[in-house]
Amino acid sequence: MDKRIILKAFRQNKLAVICAVLLLFIIIVSLLASLSPYDPDAMNVQERLEGMSGKHWFGTDDLGRDTLTRALYGGRVSLMVGFAAMIVAVIFGTLIGTVSGYAGGKVDIVCMRIVDVFLSVPSLLCIIVVYAFMPQNMVTLIFMLAFFSWTKVARVVRAQTLTLKERDFVLAAKALGVKDRTIIWKHIIPNLMPQIIVAGSLSIANAILDESALSFLGYGVQLPQASWGSMLQTAQQYILYNPVMAVVPGVMILLTVLCFNILGDILQQILDPKLVK
Q1: pTM of the model
Q2: Which residue has the higher pLDDT, 218 or 88?
């Protein structure tokens, strides 16, 4: 599908443009969080639990830290975890899905049974159990999230690979004696890019939600480092006294995840020729 057609269809969808602009704004302000005059970890007990004011637009938390500044720095962490986990999950899921769908037979059966096992277990519970016995750092968190999210990508890729391997251009490549790995790399995967892009956008949203849930439970990003989930964990004790502490990170999670999910659905409609009118 021509890039110009995709961009034109994207621009004509007002909801897609709004979500893209909103996501871009959240990413930019998170990256520019260092321009804030406040240190996200600097405590000032004299200003603890202050309400919204000209000095602190969204008030302060229980240790006198600026809520907006911590939300921006937390956005860096949550978005970085989401994008990194998505990249690992998409790469691994794409490789497993293409090999499984293209090879078929016993290879496909074994790969899909492994996928079924991963899908049948509660991922958050398993992550908590495994995370308790491993170094609690960002790298571990990213790989744990990717470890339990690649299966969804693999299923989507495998289903499309089963269709693509029967197309004429693949059969012609086989007839010419092209090696299987070359067919997968140069013919199958490039034609899977629309599905991979959609699966990746949805994986980011799921990774951000999972990271926020884990941090809220105390198993994700560790305090005093800010993330949206850890901010919610702190805010639950003061929800009746200073609800803004919970509203700010909660709204950031809601908007980010909602925009990624909406963009994923819209991209699927634009990139899938069967759905394009």
Answers
A1: 0.82
A2: 88
